[in-house]
């Protein structure tokens, strides 16, 4: 289901069965940004003492990207079972 994403939502097919919802993120001040545009997910890997790696999906691109951010931001969590 790709109906929650902002148009044009290029390349979105959901063929993998992974339904990422564009929840945006919560800043350190408590405000929310980029709902309907981006999905941000924590990884378990620290970048350094203050920051952590995260993955994100954007409504305008069809690939998943990686970057690092301060740990006080709020991102989504994807639980995966073994």
Précis, in short:
The chain is mostly beta strands. Helix content is 0%, strand content 33%. The strands form two sheets. A three-stranded antiparallel beta sheet has the order 3-4-5, with no helix packed on it. Strands 1-2 form a two-stranded antiparallel ribbon.
In the predicted model, the low-confidence regions spanning at least 5 consecutive residues are none
> Terminal Cα separation, in Å?
24 Å
For this entry, what is the oligomeric state of its chains?
single chain
Report the mean per-residue pLDDT as an integer. Answer: 88
Order of adjacent strands in the largest pleated sheet: 3-4-5
Q: Strand percentage, roughly? A: 25-35%
Secondary structure category? mainly beta
Task: Specify Rg, calculated over alpha carbons.
Answer: 13 Å
Biggest sheet: strands, sense, closure?
3 strands, antiparallel
Tell me the total number of β-strands: 5
SSE succession: EEEEE
As a percent range, the share of helical residues equals under 10%
- What is the number of helical segments per DSSP (H or I, 4+ residues)? 0
When the domains are counted, the total is 1
Envelope shape: globular
């Amino acid at each position: 289901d790709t109906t929650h994403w902002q148009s044009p939502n290029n390349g979105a097919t959901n063929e993998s069965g992974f339904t990422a919802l564009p929840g945006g993120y919560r800043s350190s001040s408590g405000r929310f940004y980029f709902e309907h545009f981006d999905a941000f997910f924590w990884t378990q890997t620290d970048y350094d003492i203050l920051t952590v790696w995260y993955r994100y999906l954007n409504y305008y691109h069809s690939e998943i990207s990686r970057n690092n951010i301060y740990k006080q931001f709020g991102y989504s969590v994807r639980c995966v079972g073994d």
